Amino acid sequence: MNTTLDILPTLFTLPTRRELGDKAGSLAAAVVRSAIARKGTATVMLAAAPSQAETLRAFVSAPSIDWSAVEFFHMDDYVGLPSDAPQGFGNWLQAAAVDHLPGAAAFHRIDTSADPEEAARHYEAAMGDTPFDLVFVGLGVNGHLAFNDPPADLADPRGAKVVALDQVCRQQQVDEGHFPTFDDVPGTAITVTIPRLLNAVEIVASVPGVAKRKAVADSLSQPISGDHPGTALRTHPRVTMFLDAESDPR
């Protein structure tokens, strides 16, 4: 991650979530087509959240992509849920995206059934250190990227690690309808670190909804630091952020 840069993302504001998703998904598909044309394969990091649903819908329905040439990863998952829990991010992405793809796409999932530290090390090795061709991201209410809650380490040497989720992050999961109560939300997760997420050719950020407006404002205007993890996006030269009328703070 080049921490000497401070470049605002390219911003698009669309009237609705669906239009946001259409435009973001179209750009993401173009990035993947370009990567396959250039080198025969593409690697894609997926983000799991309601904010990503419309973007993923548009992306997986895009034409003229050889999905068998695409390797997918996902950026985080809970520790301690049953393996078939629908709240598990690997399960959510399998149902919302990967299962809709024609052809055999490879999906490398975090092993939430293993010892968490071992699973993080294994996933770090599976990702390697080659830049992803495309990374999807959202922003948490607290500005997190993946499950890197503030204060996040913007220079983390690890590729993936075990983290404790903060209260704001856990409450967001309840507010978005994933869990009935705060106590039902796992307190621990495995996350890909910010430097590994930003080790990418292109980043597509989809951030709809009024609940994310402050996180967007902070990410665009606060000094770059782990106190506002979304500010790390300004250290990457090719980030496109898609907002809707509710999330745009301008």
Automatic annotation (TrEMBL):
GO terms for molecular function: glucosamine-6-phosphate deaminase activity; identical protein binding. Keywords: Carbohydrate metabolism. GO terms for biological process: carbohydrate metabolic process; glucosamine catabolic process; N-acetylglucosamine catabolic process; N-acetylneuraminate catabolic process. InterPro entries: Glc/Gal-6P_isomerase, Glucosamine6P_isomerase, NagB/RpiA_transferase-like. Coiled coil: none annotated. It comes from Phytoactinopolyspora alkaliphila. This is Glucosamine-6-phosphate deaminase. Residues 16-234 form the Glucosamine/galactosamine-6-phosphate isomerase domain. GO terms for cellular component: cytoplasm.
